[in-house]
Amino acid sequence: MRRAFFLDRDGVINVDYGYVGHWSEFVFVPGVIPALSRLRQAGFLLILTTNQSGIGRGRYTESDFLYLTARMQRSLTAQGAQFDAIYYCPHHPQAQLAAYRRPCHGRKPQPGMLEQAAGDFNLDLTQCVMAGDHASDLQAAAAAGVERLYLVGENLKTEAVLVPGARCYQDLAALVAKEF
Question: What SS3 string covers the chain?
Fold first, then answer.
Protein backbone atom coordinates (compact mmCIF):
# COMPACT_ATOMS: atom_id res chain seq x y z
CA MET A 1 0.00 0.00 0.00
CA ARG A 2 1.11 3.54 -0.73
CA ARG A 3 1.00 6.81 1.18
CA ALA A 4 -0.09 10.20 0.01
CA PHE A 5 0.07 13.77 1.14
CA PHE A 6 -3.37 15.31 0.61
CA LEU A 7 -3.56 19.05 0.14
CA ASP A 8 -6.31 21.59 -0.22
CA ARG A 9 -5.75 24.19 -2.95
CA ASP A 10 -6.97 27.71 -2.09
CA GLY A 11 -5.10 29.03 0.93
CA VAL A 12 -2.55 26.18 0.89
CA ILE A 13 -1.17 26.03 -2.66
CA ASN A 14 -2.29 29.44 -3.87
CA VAL A 15 -3.24 32.69 -2.23
CA ASP A 16 -6.97 32.58 -1.51
CA TYR A 17 -8.58 35.72 -2.90
CA GLY A 18 -11.99 34.05 -2.84
CA TYR A 19 -13.27 31.92 -5.73
CA VAL A 20 -10.00 31.72 -7.66
CA GLY A 21 -11.09 30.29 -10.99
CA HIS A 22 -8.88 31.97 -13.58
CA TRP A 23 -5.16 31.69 -14.16
CA SER A 24 -4.80 35.48 -14.06
CA GLU A 25 -5.92 35.36 -10.39
CA PHE A 26 -3.72 32.43 -9.38
CA VAL A 27 -0.63 33.17 -7.25
CA PHE A 28 1.38 30.41 -5.59
CA VAL A 29 1.86 30.81 -1.83
CA PRO A 30 5.55 31.67 -1.29
CA GLY A 31 7.66 28.56 -0.67
CA VAL A 32 4.96 26.09 -1.74
CA ILE A 33 6.73 24.77 -4.83
CA PRO A 34 9.94 23.72 -3.04
CA ALA A 35 7.79 22.23 -0.25
CA LEU A 36 5.85 20.11 -2.75
CA SER A 37 9.08 18.99 -4.37
CA ARG A 38 10.48 17.98 -1.00
CA LEU A 39 7.37 15.93 -0.22
CA ARG A 40 7.71 14.11 -3.56
CA GLN A 41 11.35 13.37 -2.74
CA ALA A 42 10.23 11.99 0.63
CA GLY A 43 8.15 9.41 -1.25
CA PHE A 44 4.66 10.86 -0.94
CA LEU A 45 2.12 10.89 -3.72
CA LEU A 46 0.78 14.44 -3.92
CA ILE A 47 -3.00 14.55 -4.16
CA LEU A 48 -5.03 17.74 -4.35
CA THR A 49 -8.58 17.66 -2.95
CA THR A 50 -10.43 20.89 -3.45
CA ASN A 51 -13.97 22.15 -3.03
CA GLN A 52 -14.76 24.36 -5.99
CA SER A 53 -18.20 25.77 -5.22
CA GLY A 54 -17.31 28.76 -7.38
CA ILE A 55 -18.33 26.58 -10.31
CA GLY A 56 -21.77 25.89 -8.86
CA ARG A 57 -22.11 29.52 -7.82
CA GLY A 58 -21.49 30.64 -11.40
CA ARG A 59 -18.29 32.53 -10.55
CA TYR A 60 -16.33 30.54 -13.17
CA THR A 61 -16.98 27.50 -15.33
CA GLU A 62 -15.72 23.96 -14.99
CA SER A 63 -13.69 24.63 -18.15
CA ASP A 64 -12.10 27.65 -16.47
CA PHE A 65 -11.17 25.48 -13.50
CA LEU A 66 -9.71 22.75 -15.71
CA TYR A 67 -7.68 25.29 -17.69
CA LEU A 68 -6.32 26.85 -14.50
CA THR A 69 -5.51 23.37 -13.17
CA ALA A 70 -3.62 22.42 -16.33
CA ARG A 71 -1.56 25.65 -16.16
CA MET A 72 -0.84 25.05 -12.47
CA GLN A 73 0.28 21.49 -13.22
CA ARG A 74 2.59 22.64 -16.05
CA SER A 75 4.22 25.16 -13.71
CA LEU A 76 4.65 22.54 -10.98
CA THR A 77 5.90 19.82 -13.35
CA ALA A 78 8.67 22.12 -14.58
CA GLN A 79 9.96 22.17 -11.00
CA GLY A 80 9.37 18.54 -9.99
CA ALA A 81 6.42 19.43 -7.77
CA GLN A 82 3.36 18.28 -9.72
CA PHE A 83 0.31 16.58 -8.28
CA ASP A 84 -0.21 12.90 -8.96
CA ALA A 85 -3.96 13.44 -8.93
CA ILE A 86 -6.44 16.26 -8.54
CA TYR A 87 -9.95 15.71 -7.20
CA TYR A 88 -12.50 18.51 -7.04
CA CYS A 89 -16.10 18.97 -6.03
CA PRO A 90 -18.09 21.71 -7.80
CA HIS A 91 -21.27 21.01 -5.83
CA HIS A 92 -22.90 23.05 -3.11
CA PRO A 93 -26.34 22.63 -1.51
CA GLN A 94 -27.17 26.28 -2.29
CA ALA A 95 -25.43 26.53 -5.68
CA GLN A 96 -26.94 29.09 -8.03
CA LEU A 97 -26.63 26.69 -10.98
CA ALA A 98 -29.13 23.85 -10.67
CA ALA A 99 -26.78 21.26 -12.16
CA TYR A 100 -24.46 21.71 -9.16
CA ARG A 101 -27.07 22.26 -6.44
CA ARG A 102 -26.98 19.20 -4.23
CA PRO A 103 -25.33 17.73 -1.17
CA CYS A 104 -22.32 15.67 -2.23
CA HIS A 105 -20.24 13.01 -0.50
CA GLY A 106 -17.21 14.52 -2.25
CA ARG A 107 -17.61 18.00 -0.79
CA LYS A 108 -15.43 18.45 2.26
CA PRO A 109 -16.03 17.92 5.19
CA GLN A 110 -17.35 14.70 3.64
CA PRO A 111 -14.54 12.20 2.91
CA GLY A 112 -15.53 11.24 -0.67
CA MET A 113 -12.55 12.71 -2.52
CA LEU A 114 -10.07 11.07 -0.16
CA GLU A 115 -11.88 7.74 -0.30
CA GLN A 116 -11.87 7.86 -4.10
CA ALA A 117 -8.13 8.57 -4.11
CA ALA A 118 -7.54 5.68 -1.69
CA GLY A 119 -9.25 3.32 -4.11
CA ASP A 120 -7.57 4.79 -7.20
CA PHE A 121 -4.06 4.61 -5.73
CA ASN A 122 -4.28 1.70 -3.25
CA LEU A 123 -3.53 4.03 -0.33
CA ASP A 124 -3.24 3.15 3.32
CA LEU A 125 -5.08 6.20 4.63
CA THR A 126 -3.67 5.70 8.14
CA GLN A 127 -0.23 6.40 6.67
CA CYS A 128 -1.35 9.47 4.74
CA VAL A 129 -1.20 13.14 5.71
CA MET A 130 -3.56 16.09 5.12
CA ALA A 131 -2.78 19.79 5.04
CA GLY A 132 -5.61 22.27 4.71
CA ASP A 133 -6.49 25.80 5.68
CA HIS A 134 -9.98 25.05 6.98
CA ALA A 135 -11.32 22.67 9.59
CA SER A 136 -13.50 21.06 6.90
CA ASP A 137 -10.35 19.87 5.07
CA LEU A 138 -9.10 18.11 8.17
CA GLN A 139 -12.54 16.80 9.14
CA ALA A 140 -12.82 15.12 5.72
CA ALA A 141 -9.40 13.54 6.14
CA ALA A 142 -10.16 12.34 9.67
CA ALA A 143 -13.46 10.84 8.49
CA ALA A 144 -11.53 8.94 5.81
CA GLY A 145 -9.04 7.58 8.37
CA VAL A 146 -6.13 9.99 7.90
CA GLU A 147 -4.42 10.46 11.26
CA ARG A 148 -1.78 13.16 10.58
CA LEU A 149 -3.62 16.44 10.22
CA TYR A 150 -2.10 19.88 9.68
CA LEU A 151 -3.85 23.23 9.61
CA VAL A 152 -1.95 25.91 7.71
CA GLY A 153 -2.62 29.43 6.55
CA GLU A 154 -4.62 32.42 7.59
CA ASN A 155 -7.39 30.67 9.53
CA LEU A 156 -5.30 29.21 12.35
CA LYS A 157 -6.75 31.36 15.10
CA THR A 158 -10.37 30.74 14.22
CA GLU A 159 -10.31 27.12 13.06
CA ALA A 160 -7.64 25.33 15.11
CA VAL A 161 -10.12 24.78 17.96
CA LEU A 162 -12.45 22.96 15.56
CA VAL A 163 -9.95 20.15 14.94
CA PRO A 164 -8.44 18.99 18.23
CA GLY A 165 -5.06 17.38 17.76
CA ALA A 166 -4.25 19.09 14.47
CA ARG A 167 -0.81 20.62 14.28
CA CYS A 168 -0.67 24.21 13.09
CA TYR A 169 1.81 26.01 10.86
CA GLN A 170 1.94 29.38 9.17
CA ASP A 171 2.09 27.77 5.72
CA LEU A 172 3.04 24.58 3.88
CA ALA A 173 6.68 25.61 3.59
CA ALA A 174 6.99 25.95 7.37
CA LEU A 175 5.20 22.63 7.90
CA VAL A 176 7.46 20.73 5.51
CA ALA A 177 10.63 22.34 6.83
CA LYS A 178 9.77 21.31 10.40
CA GLU A 179 8.10 17.91 9.91
CA PHE A 180 9.49 16.44 6.68
Answer: CECEEEECCECCCECCCCCCCCHHHCCECCCHHHHHHHHHHCCCEEEEEEECHHHHCCCCCHHHHHHHHHHHHHHHHCCCCCCCEEEEECCECCCCCHHHECCCCCCCCCCHHHHHHHHHHCECHHHCEEEECCHHHHHHHHHHCCCEEEEECCCHHHHHHHCCCCEEECCHHHHHHHHC
